[in-house]
Design a protein that fits this description.
By secondary structure, the chain is mainly beta. It is 10% helix and 42% strand. A hairpin with a 5-residue loop joins strand 2 and strand 3.
């Protein structure tokens, strides 16, 4: 998804980890831009994770606000490193 304006977090909620076993928790963080466009980012935590919370998932999502392309799915590993595992296809084509 291409950035349309300033992003803000409009809603976040827990979901089952989509990658399956080996992951402790996952959250969807819904981002909304100034034009009202929304983008859902899955933030998933590898097990055994030290810290999983909706607040930490939102903190991770904020790292991507300035990117032209927002990812669809990121994984936070046990060392708290973030890896993009799902890119959002370009909407312009």
């Amino acid at each position: 998804m291409r950035r349309q304006g300033g992003w803000s977090i409009s809603k976040s909620w827990p979901v089952e980890p989509p990658t399956g076993p080996g992951y402790d928790a996952a959250y969807i963080v819904r981002l909304t831009d100034e034009a009202g466009l929304t983008h859902d980012l899955v933030v998933e935590f590898a097990a055994p994770s030290v810290l999983t919370s909706v607040g930490y998932a939102e903190e991770i999502a904020r790292r991507f606000w300035r990117r032209t392309q927002l990812p669809a799915h990121v994984i936070v590993d046990t060392q708290r490193d973030v890896q993009v595992v799902g890119e959002t296809p370009d909407d312009s084509g």
